[in-house]
Amino acid sequence: MDVTSVDRAYVEIRQRIVDGQYPPGQPLSEVTLAQAHGMSRTPVREALAKLCHERYVERMPGRGFFVARVTVQAINETYEVRRLLEGWAAARAAEHATPEIIARLRALAARQDDAATAAEAGANNRRFHLAVAAAAGNQLAGDLIEQSLAQIDRFITLGAGFAPFKTGAAEAHSEIVAAIEARNPAEARARMERHLDRGLTLMRDSVVTGAFTNVNAN
Q1: CA–CA distance, 90 with 87 (Å, rounded to integer)
Q2: How many Å is the maximal CA-CA distance in the chain?
Q3: Where does 3-68 sit in CATH, by number?
Q4: pLDDT tens column, 119-136
Q5: Where exactly are the structural domains of the chain?
Q6: CA 218, chain centre distance (Å)
Q7: Which of 56-60, 101-105, 155-159, 188-192 has the weakest average pLDDT?
Q8: Listing from the earlier edge strand, what are the strands of the sheet with 57-60?
Q9: Residue 93 to residue 66: CA distance in whole angstroms
Q10: What angle do CA 28, 162, 153 make, to 5 degrees?
């Protein structure tokens, strides 16, 4: 076994979970996954342990690994983490972003309305939020934000739909960039937090209207 095979197993299994190919509650057999991904069981086992730590996978004693269910608690906690980290990142970007970085953020914000498909809109949204995180200059925070964004992608794939999230996103992103450009950390944080609060509301509404399947209210 080498690090490359573990990394490949992790990336491939996580992507299939995010895409919904491995739906919530599905058993994840080491043998089956090893065959599906063309590798031995050892890197699969290591990948599952990491995915369990990141809450994509659940381990049930005596039963093995399963794809983590979507729960209201998981949605709330993901947005709480995003609010803390991305609010801080926006404030930090207002203090340190160079004119070149601000120009890139402005361009990414403008591209949100240009997307022709939900997938393209989601990719543009991800690029913007990761660019703000990068502007903060903290790699660990950026990695955690990226993990949180992947969870949001999973929630959307499993039923929330991207259309409601796209409405008003370009304007919200532009307001965040304006606060960063004005070198106003408090306003940048507030704009980001407001944007994420709206996302949480939309996600909760999706649960109430029954858009999700396999959602646990706990």
Answers
A1: 5
A2: 56
A3: 1.10.10.10
A4: 777 888 999 999 999 999
A5: 3-68, 71-216
A6: 21
A7: 155-159
A8: 27-28, 64-67, 57-60
A9: 39
A10: 30
CB neighbour list of residue 9: distance below 8 Å, 6 or more residues apart: 33, 37, 39, 43, 44, 46, 47
pTM listed for this prediction: 0.83
- The CATH homologous superfamily for domain 71-216 is GntR ligand-binding domain-like (1.20.120.530)
Average pLDDT, the chain: 89
Which residue carries 């949100």 as its tokens?
112
* CA nearest to 24, candidates 212, 217, 218: 212
pLDDT tens, 37-54? 999 999 999 999 999 988
CB atoms within 10 A of CB 75: 22
CA distance 87 to 117: 28
Residues in the chain: 218
- Tell me the three state secondary structure of residue 104: helix
- Residue 103 corresponds to which tokens in the numbers above? 């120009």
Tokens of 48: 């599952």
